[in-house]
Amino acid sequence: SMRGSNNRLDEAGRARQNAREERFGGKMECAKGTALLLLLLLCACNADIYMHSMRGSNNRLDEAGRARQNANRMFDSQNNERGGYNVGSLYFYEGSIVNLEWTAQHSCGPHAKAGCQMILQYTCEDQTPGLRDGTTTTTIPENKEESAQIEYGQQETFRYFWQCRNRKRNEGLFTADQNLNRGPNPNSARHTRQNPNGQRYAFECPEERDYYPYWHPTPWKDIAIFTDETSRCEYYRAESENVKGRGYCSASMYNNQADCIEAGANWRTSIPYGSGPPDCLPAPWSRDNHLGNDYLDMTTEVGADGTVNGEVPSARNAYAMSYNWTVPSHASGKCALRIRYNISAAELPWDTDSTSNTKAGDPNPLVIATYKNGTGDVYLRNNPQVDFGVGFNLQLAINTAQIGRVFQDRSHVFEVYPRPADMEPGSKLYNLNVRGKRGNIVQVYPGVEYDFHPNRMEVHPQDYVHIHWTGSNTNPNNNDGQGKRGTDRSNMVEINRFGDNYPKWINNQTMFRDAATAMRMALLDSPQKGGETSELDDAGTYFDGGIHQFRRTTDSSTAVYHYMSTRNNNFSNRSQKGSITVLGLPRAAAAGAVAATVVGGAAVGAAAMIVLFRKRKIKVPSVLDKKAPRLAKFLRGETSLSIRRSSKRSSASLKKQSGFELSNNSLTPRATASATIVDSSATSTGLESGPLSRLGNWEEHATEDGKTYWWHRKTGDSRWDKPSLAELADGDGEGRV
Length: 737
Known about the structure:
The chain is of the alpha+beta class. It is 11% helix and 22% strand.
């Protein structure tokens, strides 16, 4: 706004006809072979949801075109045919943290224009035997024997679909004016208001797809629920199949206990998955009609009403919707993940049921509006024409199959491996991947261009990062990019600053443990000999860079490493860069800090945690022992003190605002001070009571969970392992180790 022309006039095609006028002196990286674009048929615009990490398939396999070939291949997405990423296999370790990321078209969260819920779930081989991506875009046959062939993709079993196909639908559900008694197996659970003709999408059960929590057993375990009505969280968590079994009849056609028993069959209850209730969180805020970023980053805390610091969010932050998923220990083998996204019109209450249907003869049709001097009562029907006082009818764009609508995306199959036994207990393992696909921003839409993911990470010295990514060799050949047409490749090289576009000299790099490791991350595979390596054409689509620990520099309590991909970081067209910040303290020590410590009226908060240790003892007035005993112990050198580092006040300004002043190693009340000391003792957790032992300048301290670590009094370095005698002999522990 105002409408940009990009050299268009009134062309009816998707592409402009003439880019040569160069009115603005600009140059655009544009698609080759645009004749293909002009031949594509226009399709209806959908309120889509797309997964970017993990790679969402949107029913794609390995198509070389921009559009998927089969919208019925694995599941009903309701998304635009151009969405999704080609198949690419990854594996994740048990207990590792995967940042899941997605974009959704319609508004969500506080003050959104529609009701909104999002649900993350996963399934593995133990719930879904035969889970696989397949090798063909053809939908799996509706036949038990033929469906066993591995060429067909499968994320639900034939038995699961067979039970759904035979089971009577839930007639208590709201269906508006839709006719569900048509198509195959009429009046079965294959038929819903959104899928009235019973269309088959592989072995998915449409009724289960459209409703949550579902009332019969499913192969999907809950991860997290995002809702604009957090008052429902208690209900969602209690009704999750993770913690509550599901009823079913031994004769699959019956959907309730009364009919089942009356027919002489057995009503049974499945065993809950036992993985604990899912997270239930406020729905993330997003713009309407925009597959863009969420307001919040991954670390921001929101209130129960979805507000941030008491204010309604706006589109200022540059992070897509995301969730940090810890891969559970009971997940193993092949798995798949899905996200479902429901939007509902405000006129459709949450508890609307079949008593409000609007077909002829329904006793209590849902009245949407009443115009006394115009149309009168307006019921929920397709494309109604209404007179709301203007003197003639205007038609509304209403589709009763979509007035409450569910969208979906699913990952390709990934594998889960046991956590390596030699990793330090209590440490965290993060995954660092690559999202996106080959092409410019228009060609890949509604997907995204290449980027590392997450492209900004904060880790502790004891944490691990598993670096790995995948891609495809069958992207559209006319999509822009470097290297061989149609191929995805990425590598990782260190740069000095985020804004740099030239890598550091390999022997000067500090990000990886040695130059040989850095060489492998740059060339992708050490056995690679010869071939086209300048743009990595002869490397594979999948690369496992292994598990890394990143060290701090010797002259700072933290270290920041910046990196990029030499192939895809095409300045002014796309950026593929990332950074890793290594924090200076053991995780458990920093985690015990107070919410906010006030010293002399000066609040210290809103930024990273720091733990203070006194290097010298000072005399403390007795009044401080009563008002702030932990602060007094800290000043005497008897304990540490955890605070939040202020982003707005320097240490000097804090000293000026303190109620005390230091003179000749003695703390005395400042004569002009009117502020009070607020002790952190009552609110802090896990603060240490002093060193457990000393070796030279090394002190042994305990975290709140009993784990010990060593801290150097002079350098401020911290480490988990005990200093060796050889290290202590080198200057009695005086030097930096």
